[in-house]
Amino acid sequence: MDANDEEIKEAYRIFYLIKGHIDSPETTVMSSYNSYFRRAWQSGSDGAPHYEKEDGFEEAWAKKIEEDTIEKVANLGYD
Q1: Nearest Cα to Cα of residue 34 among 17, 14, 16, 64
Q2: Sign of the torsion formed by the C-alpha atoms of 42, 44, 49 and 15
Q3: How far apart are the first and last CA of the chain?
Q4: Do the beta carbons of residue 19 and residue 38 sit within 8 Å?
Q5: Which residues contact 4 (CB under 8 A, 6 or more apart)?
Q6: Residue among 12, 42, 14 nearest 25 (CA)
Q7: Is the pLDDT reported for residue 6 higher than 90?
Q8: Angle at 32 between CA 30 and CA 38, to 5 degrees
Q9: Distance (Å, rounded) from C-alpha 61 to C-alpha 64?
Q10: How far apart are CA 75 and CA 72, in angstroms?
Q11: Nearest CA to 11 among 36, 42, 48?
Q12: 36, 18 Cβ separation under 8 angstroms
């Protein structure tokens, strides 16, 4: 994973903490990052248990990567 992929994954992680899902286009997630990071930071400093919300992120991320890969292959016309 290069730095760009890591930044994208982190943006999706923050999006997941705030929204509870990652079913959004990458452009939406990336444009939401700064404001959602501030929201997560503030709610975390107020005692919000983000670790409870974060538990499902890795599973959701793996599913998204799999779906994106299948979609790319389908768009290329491979079986």
Answers
A1: 14
A2: positive
A3: 26
A4: no
A5: none
A6: 12
A7: yes
A8: 120
A9: 5
A10: 5
A11: 36
A12: yes
Say how far apart CA 63 and CA 31 lie, in whole Å: 22
The two structure tokens encoding residue 30: 């990336």
* Residue type present at position 56: G
DSSP state of 64: H
What CA–CA distances, in Å, run from 31 to 11, 35, 47, 52, 78? Answer: 9, 9, 26, 25, 32
What predicted TM-score, i.e. pTM, was given to this entire model?
A: 0.79
For 52-75, what is each residue's pLDDT tens digit?
Answer: 778 899 999 999 999 888 887 777
Structure tokens at 17: 């903490």
Longest dimension (CA), the chain: 50
Contact 31, 13 (CB under 8 A): no
